[in-house]
Backbone:
């Protein structure tokens, strides 16, 4: 199928915009000799250190043969359900590596925090910056320069982007991501959302809410709604960094273990010591980045990737912006309904045909670059397949020809919407992102007086007092990267949902985040420039009429006088400076980029 002309044009302009930076990035690969085991380039004493803690067989092979060495970087901890399954993976990987004539070693661990735990509390202010800490930790893990390839074990929100950013600064290394899979389905998402809203309205107590949450998040594995964690897994597939179909196989199952072993075997075969060298710096190119944006739009994925993908691209010497997202969204159909865009979860999506069906449909529609390099053979067409076990042997077969449930997953020619579920908003208040795929069509444009707050807690207090029982645009400013690390503001969605259900016209405008759990209320998020940097949100006052239009893509204000002449209101950041380790991140806040440039402190990785 001929490539869609808009996808082709966006790809070309990204390549042109990035040409010089990308050339310097690729120079790093060209300067590296992958045909000699990396450890051999070290002095003898250094080599001895690399093997001193190994099993006897591994030590022998590291010191005396050309077996490739696979470095494992893991985000394991047993507090996160998504990462708890990784406890078993090092032993599985070491065994599989020996089967493939390779040695695997855990090179290091990276932190993995859970936004589900920190939502609404001070720890959330470290969340976005944890991505950059993970990138730095990944670089430290790989800095021993003794590995010929790497396996990255991570799933959730900031963890996959951080691992990928760190690995991309070792562009000569072949790298495969190894997921753990989603937990089995629990309490239906629609029921979970209803109980949260009932609690916000005081209709049920804390005990009933806790029971509902525990029934939703109930087992090892990734949360099953289509938030950032599961959007990450989709991205790794359409960018070619997973084995095909690896994303949504449940943990601790024979097929999951077989996929982990197969990823290890593959990591041993794609080093420069063999004849199928596949360095990550060649796999993640302009086409792979465009594929990621297409996948995001086709699935109505997490708005966090408007922040993460620019940072990932920059790590690969590629420069993208939100205009690229907007143009791709215009031509990419919305093909899934997964909570919060629908009632189903990712297990239902997987059963309906999953990533194999989705990928084939997008390729056939000319919306994905099928000719990208991937970690497996066959290009992206191989990702139109799904894994299965033939006895004890893993194999792949074509994905289903038709969706198993068209209320969840549809083909590209009969989608839920002819354009993507994520939109760019522009106007006098700045540039912002909105996720309209979860919002009813009659609620995608809201015009109402602004009520201005500088914290999530202040909004919650106003709701309890009844001060929000009106048509209103709730503005929460001082939530950007430089203000307080750009926390997600999930506690607001049940409140605003309750107001909307009471018949009020409501929307949210903020320089903070909502992420993949954005719900049924129109939200203009990631507003940039942020208020703490003198952005227009700092000039808004209570009563200014604001219009958020997700269909037209505008973010406007109709004030009674020349509001642009107002002095920006000072944003009090003193409360964000101390406690829960926040003082350690002052340097990060001072050096954070804008949301559109990635939101973190690493800056231009030229």
Residues:
């Amino acid at each position: 199928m001929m490539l869609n002309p808009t996808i082709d044009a966006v790809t070309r302009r990204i390549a042109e915009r990035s040409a010089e930076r990308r050339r310097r990035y690729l120079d790093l690969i060209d300067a590296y000799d992958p045909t000699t085991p990396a450890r051999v380039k070290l002095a003898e004493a250094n080599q001895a250190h690399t093997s001193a803690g190994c099993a006897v067989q591994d030590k022998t092979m590291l010191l005396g043969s050309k077996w490739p060495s696979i470095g494992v970087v893991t985000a394991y901890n047993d507090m996160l359900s998504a990462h708890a399954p990784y406890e078993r993976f090092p032993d599985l990987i070491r065994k599989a590596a020996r089967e493939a004539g390779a040695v695997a070693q855990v090179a290091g661990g990276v932190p993995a925090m859970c936004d589900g735990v920190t939502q609404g509390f001070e720890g959330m202010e470290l969340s976005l910056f944890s991505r950059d800490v993970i990138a730095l930790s990944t670089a430290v893990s790989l800095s021993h320069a003794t590995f010929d390839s790497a396996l990255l074990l991570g799933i959730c929100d900031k963890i996959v982007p951080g691992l990928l950013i760190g690995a991309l600064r070792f562009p000569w290394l072949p790298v495969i991501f190894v997921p753990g899979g989603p937990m089995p389905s629990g309490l239906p998402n629609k029921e979970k959302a209803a109980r949260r809203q009932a609690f916000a309205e005081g209709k049920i107590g804390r005990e009933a809410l806790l029971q509902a949450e525990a029934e939703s998040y109930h087992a090892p594995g990734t949360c099953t709604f289509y938030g950032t964690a599961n959007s990450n897994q989709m991205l790794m597939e359409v960018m070619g960094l997973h084995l095909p179909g690896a994303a949504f196989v449940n943990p601790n199952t024979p097929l999951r273990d077989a996929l982990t072993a197969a990823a290890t075997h593959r990591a041993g075969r794609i080093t420069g010591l063999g004849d199928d060298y596949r360095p990550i710096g060649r796999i993640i190119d302009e086409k792979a980045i465009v594929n990621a944006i297409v996948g995001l739009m086709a699935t109505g994925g997490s708005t966090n990737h408007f922040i993460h993908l620019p940072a990932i691209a920059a790590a690969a010497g590629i420069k993208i912006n939100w205009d690229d997202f907007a143009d791709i969204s215009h031509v990419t159909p919305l093909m899934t309904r997964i909570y919060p865009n629908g009632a189903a979860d990712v297990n239902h999506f997987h059963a309906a045909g999953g990533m194999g069906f989705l990928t084939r449909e997008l390729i056939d529609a000319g919306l994905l670059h099928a000719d990208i390099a991937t970690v497996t053979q066959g290009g992206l067409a191989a990702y139109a397949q799904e894994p299965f076990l033939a006895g004890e042997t893993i194999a792949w077969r074509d994905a289903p020809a038709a969706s198993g449930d068209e209320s969840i997953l549809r083909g590209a020619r009969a989608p839920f919407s002819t354009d993507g579920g994520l939109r760019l908003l522009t106007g006098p208040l700045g540039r912002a992102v909105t996720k309209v795929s979860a919002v009813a069509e009659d609620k995608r444009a809201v015009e109402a007086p602004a009520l201005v707050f500088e914290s999530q807690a202040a909004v919650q207090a106003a709701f309890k007092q009844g001060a929000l029982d009106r048509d209103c645009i709730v503005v929460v400013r001082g939530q950007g990267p430089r203000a307080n690390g750009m926390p997600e503001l999930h506690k607001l969605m049940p409140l605003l949902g309750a107001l909307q259900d009471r018949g009020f016209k409501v929307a949210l405008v903020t320089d903070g985040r909502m992420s993949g759990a954005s719900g049924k209320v129109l939200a203009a998020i990631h507003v940039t420039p942020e208020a703490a940097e003198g952005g227009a949100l700092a000039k808004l006052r209570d009563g200014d009429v604001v219009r958020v239009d997700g269909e037209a893509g505008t973010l406007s204000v109709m004030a009674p006088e020349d509001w642009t002449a107002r002095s920006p209101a000072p944003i009090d950041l003193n409360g964000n400076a101390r406690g829960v380790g926040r003082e350690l991140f002052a340097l990060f806040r001072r050096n954070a980029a804008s949301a559109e440039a990635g939101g973190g402190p690493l800056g231009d990785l030229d």
